[in-house]
Design a protein that fits this description.
Layout (H helix, E strand, L loop, with lengths): L1 H19 L32 H6 L21 E2 L14 H6 L5 E3 L2 E3 L5 H6 L12 E4 L2 E4 L8 H4 L12 E9 L3 H10 L5 E4 L6 H10 L4 E7 L20 H12 L7 E6 L1 H4 L2 H14 L2 E4 L8 H8 L3 E3 L2 E2 L6 H18 L1 E7 L2 H12 L7 E3 L12 E2 L2 E2 L15
Parallel strand pairs: 6-7, 6-13, 6-14, 7-8, 8-9, 9-10, 10-11, 12-13
Antiparallel strand pairs: 1-2, 2-3, 4-5, 15-16
Pfam family, one: Polysacc_deac_2
Protein name: Divergent polysaccharide deacetylase family protein
InterPro entries: Divergent_DAC, Glyco_hydro/deAcase_b/a-brl
Length: about 425
């Protein structure tokens, strides 16, 4: 009974506190916080469009005097190199040899030397020669498109040549690699792997001849067309149907020449293919060179002909002419080819210029790549063959005929 009375009193007391009491008076209380409680404030914002002038005035000022004279070493590379201590038109590149003779005055951008007065676009354009045919430099004769001298006097020998200049009058070497267009792999290798200063010659019956010439010129190479000439001994080889023959006159050889010249366009000259027998017959040679002279096409001799009359007749007919010292790859070994190339360097240093001729054998292309890459430190310039051709054969120097030109001939084509 007493328990029931006590329970009733406790329940009544609790109900009274619930409806009328102050909980804070019941005893101490502790508040637990899961996050720190702070007064709210405006966040600091970086305003880009509009800033209070008063706030800007409160910002610390940074002194930038002298910053321009300090090199951090962290400047980005823009592909532009100036010579140390030079102005914007200072010497380009680190070569002492270039700086010494003034040949490299300018700025080197991405490996290209831009001289005062030139633009980068003008310099890089040389990497690709103009599309062929050039307007006004062809004519059609009996259904055959042939090269011709333009109305303004430009000749194919000039218009289709690769630009070249040698202001320092350094020794010059040139190289022609031929037999192209027959083997697509070798042709592609020569076009893409050899420096653009190397002249390329194409067989007249090459598959897609104009295509290959266009590709070569797009890569910067000037080109020649090979003229098959009668040899003494063909062995098992069959004579080309358009071979220029000894003992024959203009009535036979000129139509054959026109057929060969009409195979393509974009070549600055022609080069002999074989021809020991034909080249000895000055009577047969003359009408052929008369046509070349009339059409402004250059003649290059590959150095394989011992008793040729080509140089003498070229002199008489005023044909632009150049002759190689010798073939470089009659023996297809690296050592033998290298010896021939070293001989060209010797001739160039002694007489001003030298030219070699070879074929697009893999070993020839490989050796030519190595050789041309090493000419610069030797003080020798690689030139296109057109830079060595003159309106007459090479003059006599030291009582000897210079087969590959002279110092006076090298600048013949300074501007293309």
């Amino acid at each position: 009974m007493s328990l029931l009375v006590f329970g009733g009193l406790a329940g009544a007391l609790g109900a009274g506190i619930q409806f009328s009491g102050d909980p804070s008076a019941a005893g101490p209380r502790q508040q637990l916080a899961l996050f720190e409680v702070v007064d709210e404030a405006k966040p600091d914002l970086k305003t880009r469009l509009k800033t209070d002038a008063a706030e800007m005035a409160m910002l610390p000022q940074v002194d930038t005097d002298g910053y321009a004279e300090v090199e951090s070493g962290d400047e980005p590379s823009l592909g532009i190199a100036y010579a140390e201590g030079a102005e914007a038109t200072g010497t380009g590149g680190p070569s002492d040899d270039v700086m010494a003779d003034g040949e490299g005055v300018g700025v080197r951008i991405n490996g290209k030397l831009v001289k005062p007065g030139e633009s980068y676009g003008e310099v890089t354009k040389i990497a690709s020669l103009d599309d062929a045919p050039i307007s006004g430099m062809t004519e059609t004769v009996n259904g055959v498109r042939l090269p011709r001298i333009a109305a303004d006097g430009r000749t194919p020998a000039e218009a289709y040549a690769r630009p070249f200049a040698n202001p320092g009058q350094k020794p010059v070497v040139a190289l022609v690699v031929g037999g192209l267009g027959i083997n697509a792999t070798h042709t592609k290798s020569a076009i893409e792997e050899l420096p653009p200063e190397v002249t390329l010659s194409f067989a007249p019956d090459a598959n897609r001849l104009q295509y290959w010439i266009d590709r070569a010129r797009a890569a910067g190479h000037e080109v020649l067309i090979e003229l098959p000439m009668e040899n003494y001994d063909y062995g098992r080889m069959k004579m080309h149907p358009q071979t220029l023959l000894s003992g024959k006159g203009a009535d036979v050889n000129v139509p054959r020449l026109n057929t060969l010249l009409g195979r393509a366009s974009g070549y600055f000259g022609v080069i002999n293919y074989q021809g020991a027998k034909f080249a000895e017959d000055a009577t047969a040679v003359r009408p052929v060179l008369d046509v070349l002279s009339k059409r402004g096409v250059a003649l290059v001799e590959d150095g394989s002909l011992e008793e040729a009359s080509l140089d003498k007749v070229a002199d008489q007919t005023h044909v632009r002419y150049a002759k190689a010292a010798s073939p470089i790859d009659t023996k297809l070994t690296a050592d033998d080819i290298n010896l021939e190339l070293m001989e060209l360097e010797t001739i160039a240093k002694e007489k001003g210029a030298a030219m070699g001729a070879g074929y697009a054998f893999p070993i020839t292309i490989e050796m030519a790549k190595i050789w041309t890459s090493e000419l610069g430190p030797k003080g020798i310039i690689l030139a296109p063959v057109s830079a060595l051709v003159g309106t007459t054969p090479a003059e006599l120097v030291d009582a000897e005929r210079v087969a590959t030109g002279s110092k006076a001939q090298a600048p013949v084509n300074p501007a293309g």
